[in-house]
Specification:
Layout (H helix, E strand, L loop, with lengths): L2 H15 L1 E3 H8 L3 H13 L3 E4 L2 E4 L9 H5 L3 H12 L7 E4 L3 H7 L7 E5 L2 H7 L5 E5 L3 E3 L4 E3 L1 H8 L3 E6 L3 E3 L3 E4 L2 H13 E7 L11 E4 L6 E4 L5 H9 L3 E4 L1
Parallel strand pairs: 4-5, 4-9, 5-6, 9-12, 12-14, 14-15
Antiparallel strand pairs: 1-3, 2-3, 7-8, 10-11, 11-13
């Protein structure tokens, strides 16, 4: 197979599956991994794909990260319903980890009257709950990303590694059946990985607009999630994939 032909087939493969690893492409096209790395480098220089750690993603599926203001008004009614349902899974005196995000902020608004310990890396959640008398509120600290109001970096990650919580309520930019959970920022991705490791139960909150999207940095596979709460516009095929993995699915 000529190089140009292989390049076209690699792009077709990425258009179909959105993301691929170097070993995966090496096996598919029966060439060495060093050849695949060279192919990916050449294709990235031509702005045909985006390289990632260990592979590549299709440019059409790399989404830029919206700001907090942009996300606050997007699918707000769905986010409010998701948050209301999520609050019903929280028990008195539990230790809860709230990820940054507009849906988790809506969840925080439901929790003022509960007796809880809440840990968060969200500036907005801290502001929302700072006067709640029944809540012991803990900040991860760290470097604030002003675009989304999330605290990230080594200090925040170190804090999370030293705790264990009952439940994590996780937000995500991209949720895909094959490629799992992803986010555009590498520091956000690492922070979310630490949060998943710190939780006894991981509950993903995402409206239908996040499903089928793939962003640059992979956080986890779907199998690492215990429950997903989404809205009724979520694709049925995706929900069936989740159920086959043993994930509890709730649509609202």
């Amino acid at each position: 197979m000529f190089t140009e032909e292989r390049h076209q087939q690699i792009l077709s493969y990425l258009n179909k599956y959105h993301r691929a690893s170097v070993p995966e492409l090496s096996q598919t096209f029966q060439v060495s991994e060093s050849t695949i790395r060279r192919d990916l480098s050449e294709l990235e220089q031509k702005e045909k794909l985006r390289r990632t750690h260990g592979g590549a993603v299709c440019l059409d599926f790399v989404r830029m990260e919206p700001t907090v203001k942009e996300k606050q008004t997007t699918n707000l009614s769905e986010k409010e319903r998701i948050a209301k349902t999520a609050s019903e899974w929280i028990k008195e005196k539990e230790t809860i980890l709230l990820d940054s995000g507009t849906t988790t902020l809506q969840l925080a608004k439901q929790l003022h009257s509960l007796n809880l310990t809440i840990v968060t890396n969200s500036v907005s959640v801290l502001t929302e709950l700072q006067d709640a008398q029944n809540i012991e509120l803990l900040s991860t600290g760290g470097t604030v990303r002003p675009q989304i109001g999330a605290m990230v970096g080594p200090y925040a990650e170190g804090f999370i590694r030293r705790i264990k919580v009952d439940k994590l309520f996780l937000g995500m930019n991209g949720v895909d059946g094959r490629n799992g959970l992803s986010t555009p920022n590498v520091l956000e991705a690492q922070m979310k990985k630490e949060m998943i490791s710190a939780a006894n139960k991981v509950i993903l909150l995402c409206d239908h607009s996040k499903i089928g999207k793939i962003t640059l940095h992979q956080v986890a596979s779907l199998s690492e999630i215990d429950m997903i709460i989404t809205d009724k516009s979520a694709p049925l095929s995706f929900l069936e994939d989740c159920e086959q993995l043993g994930i509890d699915v709730i649509t609202v």
